Amino acid sequence: MPIHRLNHAVLFVRDLARSVAFYRDVLGFRQVAMTPDGFDGAAFLQAPGSTNDHDLGLFEVGAAAGASDAGRSTVGLYHLAWEVDTLDELEAIGARLGEVGALVGSSDHGSTKSLYGRDPDGLEFEVVWLVPADRLDDAALEARKRIGRLDLAREKQRYGGQTRGGVGISIPT
């Protein structure tokens, strides 16, 4: 039985309300009512357009929790990547991340166009647009072997701001 997608991720956070507000207000997640009765300190969120019952679980561990050392002195998860449908959506999320000081980078991986952000606890995530399968050319495929500078305006000129990404790759044709 092959795995075909990520259903949800769970993050430990210092302040549940702050984290829920970030994922809701910046990335558009909505809270879903599925926290077990009597279980305070947890929230479950669903991404816009998702068919999962939830995409993100948040569990509060308190203000005294230290920062994650994953990748610096311990093993652990580096980041999660969420896919958007269009380059216009990627640009809008980039603007929201920038407004709250959470945008920490961008990159062009040839077949993917990516923005990187950090949540209030410093946990990194990626928001990505995938070039549709029928638009992949040799240059885009070769560029997967490097990390380039993302020029979002150029990519919108090339592919169109409203072109649905991932078609034939993550979205069946």
What is shown here, in short?
The protein has about 170 residues and is of the alpha/beta class.
What's the count of strands? 8
Strand order of the largest sheet: 1-4-3-2
Low-confidence stretches: none
pLDDT averaged residue by residue: 93
Radius of gyration of CA atoms, rounded to a whole number: 17 Å
Coarse structural class: alpha/beta
State the distance separating the first and last CA atoms. Answer: 22 Å
Q: H/E order of the elements?
A: EHEEEEHEEEHH
Strand content range? 15-25%
Keywords:
four-stranded mixed beta sheet, 21% helix, alpha/beta, 4 helices
Structure, explained:
Helix content is 21%, strand content 24%. It has 173 residues and is α/β, with parallel strands linked by helices. It is globular. The mean pLDDT is 93.
How is this fold's topology laid out?
Elements: E1 9-13, H1 16-25, E2 30-32, E3 42-46, E4 56-60, E5 80-83, H2 87-99, E6 103-108, E7 112-118, E8 124-130, H3 138-142, H4 152-159
Parallel strand pairs: 1-4, 5-8
Antiparallel strand pairs: 2-3, 3-4, 6-7, 7-8
